[in-house]
Structures are given as structure tokens and as C-alpha cells.
């Protein structure tokens, strides 16, 4: 029987691994909160770097270089690459989604030019569903007025550079973490706000095209979705 095969061979390999092997000494260099894919939720983590050493009888002897850094979950002790920290926590993701819907609603209302009651009602429904439970029509109308005063533009105009920047700031960080249906849903919410008081105006179409671009939706998909939103379900 070849060495390492069968029960006796495996037992011999196990004994050898206890006598000889590579041991890693980990050092914590940071901590925080992240979304742990092992646990499936937000957890605390430690960022670790390690030094590898050849060990005899469990005693580290010869250095074998460094390893890491890695992210260690405080709950399940799983180790993950540091790119895992690029993913937002559940709490952060919810806040990003809420802010994105709120920004889109304001942009579309500003583009509409009148803040008609039907549009405000539709916008409030979307914003509340996203997490702003106490949002009211008066609040949104006041914010649209403040937005117009701050940017020096009139409502009803095409999407100005300042407003386009705000849309990209709200949507660019979110888009990579949303599947296509999620990104399409945000655009469709904006489309329904625009359509609540009548057909799209050129300014509303321009704003919604900016929203679609920020959500990394191609122009063909944006056109398809804006057309679909006009069709009664």
C-alpha cells in the first residue's frame, strides 16, 4: 500500500502534520462592521495580517513570510478577502436605497415644474416605502422649492449639471449592489411620479434618462421602461 493511502496511511499523515507544519500568527490591525457572507448578516470583524512560520512540535521556528490581510468575522470566525468590505452592511444598504429613492423623487418633481398633487402623492408613497415613514407632501414640495433656489434653476427645466451630480452621487454607489430588477424598479418609481399628472415632459424625460444612466441602465432599456410605465397594468 502506498504511503498516505488507507486508514493507516491517513493516520500517519495526521501524526506528521501535528509534528511538522506551517503555523500562522495573526495580528489585528483594524476592526469594524461588515456584511458576513458566512453568517448572512451584519457582524463585527477584525482585519488581520499574519506571519507564517515552519513549526516543529507546535513550536514556531523558521519564518516563511507573511500572509493576509484577511477579514475575520467575530461571530463565525470565517476568513474572507478584504474586498468583502466593499459590500455595504444591511443597515448601510437600506440607507443608500432610501436616499436614492428620495433623491430621484425630488429630481422628477423638480423636472415636472408644478408639483401637482397627484405627483406629490405618488412621490410620498415611494419615499415612505423606501424608509422615510414620516414623509409628507408639504415636505417634498418645500424641498423642491429649496432645491430650485439652491441651484438657481426653475422647476420644469432639463436636468441641470448640479442636479445630475446629486443623482449620480446618490445612485452610483448603490448601482453595483443592485440586480437589474432592483435598478429598474427605482427608474420605474421615478417614471410613475412623472406620469401621475400627465405625459412625460421633455424635462422629465431628460431627468429620467440621467437616472437610468446613473443606474447603469443602457439607453434602450431606459426607453423600454419609460414606455412600459405608460402602459396601464
From TrEMBL:
Question: Could you tell me which InterPro entries the record lists for this protein?
Answer: DjlA_N, TerB-like
Co-chaperone DjlA N-terminal domain location is: 100-224
Pfam families per the UniProt record, alphabetical: TerB
Q: What is the recorded name of this protein?
A: TerB family tellurite resistance protein
Q: Which organism is it from?
A: Streptomyces incanus
Amino acid at each position: 500500500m502506498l504511503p498516505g493511502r488507507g486508514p493507516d496511511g491517513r493516520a500517519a499523515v495526521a501524526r506528521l502534520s501535528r509534528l511538522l507544519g506551517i503555523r500562522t500568527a495573526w495580528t489585528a490591525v483594524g476592526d469594524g462592521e461588515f456584511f458576513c457572507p458566512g453568517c448572512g448578516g451584519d457582524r463585527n470583524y477584525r482585519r488581520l495580517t499574519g506571519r507564517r512560520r515552519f513549526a516543529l512540535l507546535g513550536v514556531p521556528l523558521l519564518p516563511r513570510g507573511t500572509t493576509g490581510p484577511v477579514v475575520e468575522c467575530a461571530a463565525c470566525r470565517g476568513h474572507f478577502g478584504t474586498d468583502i468590505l466593499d459590500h455595504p452592511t444591511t443597515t448601510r444598504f437600506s440607507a443608500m436605497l432610501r436616499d436614492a429613492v428620495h433623491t430621484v423623487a425630488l429630481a422628477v418633481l423638480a423636472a415636472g415644474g408644478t408639483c401637482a398633487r397627484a405627483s406629490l402623492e405618488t412621490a410620498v408613497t415611494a419615499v415612505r416605502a423606501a424608509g422615510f415613514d414620516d414623509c409628507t407632501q408639504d415636505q417634498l414640495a418645500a424641498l423642491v422649492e429649496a432645491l430650485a433656489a439652491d441651484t438657481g434653476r426653475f422647476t420644469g427645466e432639463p436636468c441641470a449639471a448640479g442636479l445630475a451630480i446629486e443623482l449620480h452621487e446618490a445612485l452610483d454607489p448603490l448601482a453595483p449592489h443592485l440586480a437589474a430588477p432592483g435598478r429598474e424598479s427605482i427608474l420605474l418609481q421615478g417614471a410613475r411620479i412623472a406620469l401621475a399628472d400627465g405625459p412625460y415632459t421633455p424635462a422629465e424625460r431628460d431627468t429620467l434618462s440621467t437616472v437610468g444612466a446613473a443606474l447603469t441602465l443602457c439607453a434602450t432599456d431606459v426607453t423600454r421602461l419609460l414606455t412600459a410605465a405608460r402602459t396601464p397594468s
